[in-house]
Amino acid sequence: MGTLTISVDDDTEKTFREVAERKLGKKKGYLGQATTEAMKLWIREMTQEEIANDALHLLERSVDYGTWHYKGRQELYGR
């Protein structure tokens, strides 16, 4: 388990503590649990954003599908 020392503005800290206490109850470790959940959510969102951007870049690239080797459907299916 890691230890982080971070600085956040007072309003954000106060709101975070209030919401965490309301959702998890004011028991030992509730701030750590809430912070861990928030960090996991942020990581998931950033990862999904990267995946979406990579997919968009792939769509923007032109793709060469080659040439057609048959003239019509009959040649393809032998009908």
Provide an overview of this structure:
It is rod-shaped, with a radius of gyration of 26 Å. The chain has a domain at 10-60. The protein is an all-alpha fold. It has helices spanning 10-24, 30-60, 73-77. Helix 1 (10-24) packs across helix 2. The chain is built from three helices and no strands. The model has no long low-confidence stretch (mean pLDDT 89).
Question: Could you provide a short overview of the structure?
Answer:
The protein is mostly helical.
> Which sequence of SSEs, written as H and E, runs from N to C?
HHH
Low-confidence stretches: none
Largest sheet: none
Task: Work out the strand percent.
Answer: under 5%
How many helices?
3
Shape annotation: rod-shaped
Estimate the mean pLDDT confidence: 89
- Could you tell me the number of beta strands? 0
Radius of gyration over all CA atoms, rounded? 26 Å
Percent of residues in helices comes to 55-70%
Q: Structural class, from secondary structure content? A: mainly alpha
For the termini, the CA-CA separation is 67 Å
